[in-house]
Specification:
The chain has 824 residues and is mainly alpha-helical. 48% of the residues lie in helices and 5% in strands. Strands 4-5-6-8-7 form a five-stranded antiparallel sheet. Strands 10-11-12 form a three-stranded antiparallel sheet. Helix 8 packs parallel to helix 10 (243-261) and helix 14 packs antiparallel against helix 15.
Length: 824
């Protein structure tokens, strides 16, 4: 299929038009630079801009596309000239694809293996979905490309079931290729018989609802098992007599069953289907035991799209691991306590004693973390897993404190030190008891305890002044921590979260001695030093594909780091320490944290880079650990002006990604005295309902609230203030990011979150419904993701006005209006 003439390439002249040295039009690069561009990249660009679409063009496109992966691998990290060449090739490829008609795109996609290409792009909106699907500069297995194919397959199934879509019927389509992967040979009569069996069973299948008798629920389970068994037989058949009829029958059955089962099995147990799924090899018994009814049905059907089925198996494996962690922890706790788990009884701790206390606290924490993860999915209808009978974490902590009162404080300090409390010897009995209990009770702020203990241990000893007079204390924030004598550093210890902070002392905060006529100069110097100090502790970002391919090995438990998510520590192939956090949300949380770290970096703010990864078969994220870092001090009494400015800049980026979890434990003091953001896993969690206000604080006190409250109460150190102009560099950096790039940076957050139904998904579904003028239940997952990206762009565009209003209105800071003038 051609266009009828050699004119397409004339629509986009690719000759550079940058003014040359003489002021006229000339080449944008020198001959020397052009000589550095590999010949295959020049040929690649030319092949994308040459001629009509005919069989030769299809072959030419496929040949050029095949070079892309090799070119990206070879030159993607090369010189600026090479990267520019890749960018040019990508631009020319998009231009070539975008000037094709829908029919030409369909022809090209069909040649690349796309099924039913005529069923996407029906809205007429540009760019056509097949432009993205055909784009070889993006991997073939990314979620967005899979989704385009899934949409086409679902629409074909609806047509096969007798429906019409956009005026099309099944007769309007090109017959699909005959299935060639059947495991048994069916006659045409077999196919017709299975179709009839499916239709009859579906018609007789009742809705499962509350109040049904055991016999009625059993009838639902029996019918459900029968219809899925018949569908699976049909899905695995081959029919040499009439392969086209078989293909239509398979698609029609898949659609009819999906429509009929929608809402029919919301409650009640379905043990027969679970047993059948295990017997068929679709699931293991352990996997079947942790899936809800809806998940089990999808996992048991062979017509479920491969990507969705794979994600369900991954989810099941993650849950199986959580159950195993919970049981192992419970068993070990019972052994240490000398009998059944009774942490509510203070006397039950006697069997463990202080010698086993650190081990026991770690195991209790691991058990509660696993239980918390299980609680997120256990409530789904039909999950047969029995909950573990345990007392609450707070009750367990209370019992422990009662028992600990009678134990030697030295032994408690030793246990706390083994659990990671630096300078434990300086801690009071209450501090070390609470630090130990904080290993499982997340209501206890172990980071604040660490800060208090460290402050006591490192406080300068007062020395008698001449003549016996007491020394005069220097004003905090002037000579304070910056001039305190440094204590000897202990051995370095990696730190990726605040609870993993190293025993090596981070440098004191960099404080400007703002007094007299040198104030502005001193503040500028301090700010520059603070920026350099913050970035000095920042691990360099690796290529995402490289990190994704690394083998991190088994690793060791990171449960002592605290938090609600399972962690493990690993030595990466680079020889450096890394932390892995598993993601029970199916990758949504890992995507949000990784994308948020990218936003921070793009805004010019130091943040530990985060990568999505699979470690030991579990989905999650990995991040390098910062060595010799310490907790960022929670008390503003030790902050200098550079710290206050850094917190303001951090607030801009945190609001941009809707992260409201910025407490002191999620910030590090680098060895050079800077500030480094970590743990952005709650990014966008509250984006559907949050507001930029002192009254909004969904997860407790944050470092930004502490700063502004100290300003309002007049408790900031002498010479330290909240400066609205400090926000300008971050605002300017984000404003320079094109909307398209912003959407691309947040693509994984949007699409993974929409697919997994995270907290913001319902609100974005309503937004999409309003945008498209359709009922909310008709909104697709892709439309939910696009609504999220629309909202993210809206927030990006409104950042400067939002902070001008916040600083000038709620905080009543002088100079807030200068933000609207570029911070001047």
């Amino acid at each position: 299929m051609g266009t009828g003439g050699k004119t397409a390439h004339q629509a986009y002249d690719v000759t550079p038009t940058t003014p040359g040295p003489d002021g006229g039009t000339g080449p944008a690069e020198t001959a020397a630079q052009a000589a550095q561009i590999p010949a295959e990249l020049q040929a690649l660009t030319a092949s994308f801009t040459d001629g009509d679409l005919d069989p030769a063009d299809i072959a030419g496109f496929q040949a050029a596309a095949a070079k892309v992966a090799a070119a990206l691998d070879q030159y993607g990290d090369g010189s600026d000239e090479l990267k520019a060449a890749l960018g040019d090739a990508h631009a020319q490829q998009l231009a070539w694809l975008q000037q094709l008609t829908p029919q030409q795109l369909q022809q090209l996609a069909a040649a690349q293996g796309f099924q039913h290409p005529e069923l996407v792009g029906l809205s007429g909106k540009q760019p056509h979905p097949l432009v993205h699907w055909l784009d070889p500069f993006y991997p073939a297995d990314i979620t967005s490309k899979q989704k385009i194919q899934e949409v086409a397959q679902a629409r074909y199934a609806a047509l096969a079931a007798g429906e019409t879509i956009n005026g099309l019927t099944l007769a309007d389509l090109t017959p699909p290729p005959a299935p060639d992967d059947g495991t048994w040979t069916a006659s045409l009569a077999d196919v017709v018989g299975l179709q009839a069996q499916i239709a009859t069973t579906l018609a007789d299948l009742p809705y499962a609802k509350w109040g049904m008798s055991v016999e009625q629920l059993t009838a639902v389970d029996t019918g459900l098992t029968a219809v899925i068994d018949a569908e699976n037989k049909l899905a695995t058949a081959s029919c040499p007599d009439d392969p086209h009829t078989l293909a239509v029958a398979q698609a029609a059955a898949a659609h009819s069953i999906s429509q009929a089962l929608n809402g029919k099995v919301k409650t009640g147990a379905i043990p027969q289907l679970r047993e059948a799924a295990v017997a068929s090899g679709m699931l293991t018994a352990e996997q079947a035991a942790v899936l809800g009814n809806k998940e089990l049905i999808a996992a048991a059907r062979r017509s479920t799209p491969q990507g969705e089925a794979g994600a369900l198996l991954q989810t099941a494996d993650e849950r199986v691991g959580q159950v195993a962690d919970r049981q192992q922890a419970a068993t070990a706790i019972n052994e240490l306590l000398g009998g059944p788990l009774k942490p509510k009884d203070p006397a039950s701790w006697d069997a463990a004693g202080t010698a086993k206390l650190a081990e026991l606290a770690t195991l209790i924490g691991k058990g509660y973390q696993a239980e918390a993860a299980i609680n997120l999915w256990h409530g789904q209808a039909g999950v047969p897993l029995q909950k573990l009978s345990t007392v609450g974490a707070a009750d367990c902590a209370t019992a422990f404190r009662q028992w600990a009162k009678a134990q030697p404080v030295g032994e408690l300090r030793a246990a706390a030190a083994a659990l990671g409390l630096d300078n434990a010897g300086s801690g009071t009995r209450a501090q070390v008891q609470n630090y130990i209990a904080g290993q499982w009770d997340t209501a206890i702020d172990t980071a604040a305890l660490q800060s208090a203990v460290t402050a006591k241990a490192t406080a300068p000893k007062p020395t008698p002044a001449a003549g016996g007079a007491a020394p005069t204390a220097a004003p905090a924030g002037v000579n304070g921590a910056a001039n305190a004598p440094a204590s000897p550093a202990a051995k370095p210890k990696a730190a990726g979260t605040a609870k993993a902070a190293g025993t090596g002392k981070a440098a004191a905060p960099i404080v400007a001695k703002s007094a007299g006529w040198v104030a502005q100069h001193a503040d500028l110097v301090a700010a520059l030093k603070h920026a350099a100090a913050s970035n000095s502790g920042l691990p360099a970002r690796q290529d995402d594909k490289v990190v994704a391919g690394w083998d991190f090995g088994k690793g060791t438990s990171g449960s002592h780091l605290g938090g609600t998510h399972s962690k493990s520590l690993h030595t990466g192939p680079d020889g450096k320490p890394w932390m892995f956090k598993s993601d029970s949300s199916g990758g949504a949380r890992a995507a949000a944290e990784s994308d948020a770290a990218r936003v921070f970096a793009a805004a010019g703010l130091p943040a530990v880079p985060v990568y999505r990864a699979t470690v030991a078969g579990k989905n999650g994220s990995v991040q390098p650990l910062v060595t010799q870092a310490d907790h960022f001090p929670a008390s503003p009494k030790s902050w200098g002006q550079a710290d206050a400015d850094a917190i303001v800049r951090y607030h801009v980026a945190a609001w941009a990604v809707s992260n409201h979890d910025g407490h002191a434990a999620n910030l590090l003091r680098t060895p050079a005295g800077g500030m480094l953001a970590i743990d952005l896993g709650q990014a966008y969690k509250f984006c559907d309902s949050d507001k930029l206000s002192m009254s909004y604080n969904p997860v407790g006190s944050t470092i930004t609230h502490t700063l502004y409250q100290a300003h309002q109460s007049g408790s900031l150190p002498l010479g330290v203030k909240v400066n609205p102009a400090a926000a300008h560099p971050v605002l300017a950096a984000i404003e320079k990011i094109p909307d398209s790039q912003w959407r691309a940076m947040l693509h994984d957050t949007a699409h993974t979150g929409a697919k997994k139904g995270v907290s913001w998904a319902p609100a974005m579904r309503q937004r999409a419904a309003k945008t498209h003028g359709i009922p909310a239940d008709k909104v697709s997952t892709a439309q939910v993701a696009e609504a999220f990206l629309d909202a993210a762009v809206d927030r990006k565009k409104g950042l400067r006005q939002a902070f001008t209003t916040f600083f000038g209105g709620e905080l009543k800071l002088p100079g807030a209006s200068t933000l609207l003038k570029g911070g001047q």
